[in-house]
UniProtKB/TrEMBL annotation:
Listed SUPFAM superfamilies: Homeodomain-like, RmlC-like cupins
Source species, domain of life: Bacteria
PROSITE patterns according to UniProt: HTH_ARAC_FAMILY_1, HTH_ARAC_FAMILY_2
Gene name, Swiss-Prot/TrEMBL: tetD
Pfam families (alphabetical): HTH_18
Record's protein name: Transposon Tn10 TetD protein
Keyword Transcription regulation in annotation: yes
Length: 274
């Protein structure tokens, strides 16, 4: 558990999984390319190497004691736990989804807050009991929201087919151009109807949805990491209409591109001040 501001409360990533619970204050939180509002009870599970940060709305000299409760563990630990207790097998599926970050209801965050607080200070077998209780409640909660965009997801099992690997690679390489589903179907030696079914089966979405998702995620990277104008970003990632780009971005991220950039600059300023 740590206060805010704190040296570890910054935009960062690491190879471990983390369960985050916010006990006080409100503000913006950042997970991959996701930006959202948080309040006490905010509960998020982040996966390996997924950047994240919580920035509270505070005055210049204000602070929040014990704002964050953080439970960190490795994949190896989780696999050993499931080997010992097969009843916890659902945990591994949850961890796969954590590659994009998972938000749980604030009510669940409020429920497990006292468990996390006790876990931070207790010892011996009681720590195991508390840890198992936290993990079980997360794994059994069906009300989950994935946070970062699809390109943050690491799920090799869905893409084992060499054909789908070639297709996805081709889409990425030609994302900025006029890429049509008929061209990719021809590349795959399939009819358009067969390719449509094949693509949906392997990716869970349509060709256009996947293509636009990649373009929007690339747009997020450019908005975060470059000084290109919104218009330049629009055409750089393959959209040929600024209005359509703004509409798609708003639908996907819940805010226009300019707002997305300004909030990430807030995140950068908070990191620089830490």
């Amino acid at each position: 558990m740590h206060d805010y501001p704190h040296t570890v409360a910054k935009w960062h990533f690491h190879p471990e999984y983390e369960v985050h619970v916010i006990t006080a204050s409100g503000g913006k939180f950042f997970v991959g390319d996701f930006i959202g509002d948080f309040a006490p009870g905010n509960l998020v599970l982040t996966g390996p190497n997924l950047p994240h940060n919580w920035v509270s709305n505070l005055g210049e000299h204000d602070s929040v004691p014990s704002r964050d409760l953080v439970l960190q563990f490795s994949r190896q630990f989780a696999e050993r736990m499931v080997t010992a207790f097969p009843e916890l097998a659902a945990v591994l599926g949850m961890l796969d989804h954590a590659a994009r970050g998972i938000q749980f209801p604030d009510a669940l965050g409020t429920t497990i807050t006292p468990l996390m607080q006790e876990l931070a200070v207790t010892h011996s077998a009681r720590r195991v009991v508390l840890m198992m209780s936290v993990i079980e409640q997360l794994a059994s909660c069906a009300d989950r929201k994935l946070l970062a965009g699809p390109t943050y997801e690491v799920n090799a099992q869905r893409h084992m087919s060499s054909t789908i690997n070639q297709v996805l690679s081709y889409i990425r390489q030609n994302l900025g151009g006029n890429l049509r589903e008929t061209d990719v179907a021809e590349l795959s030696a399939m009819s358009v109807s067969s390719f449509t079914r094949f693509f949906k089966r392997h990716t869970g979405c349509t060709f256009i949805q996947y293509q636009n998702g990649l373009r929007l995620n690339e747009a997020c990277e450019l908005l975060m990491c470059t000084e290109l104008s919104v218009t330049e970003v629009c055409y750089r990632v393959g959209f040929n209409n600024l209005s359509n780009f703004n509409r798609q971005f708003l639908a996907c991220k819940g805010m226009p591109p300019s707002r997305f950039r300004s909030l990430h600059r807030l995140n950068e300023e908070a990191r620089a001040a830490a």
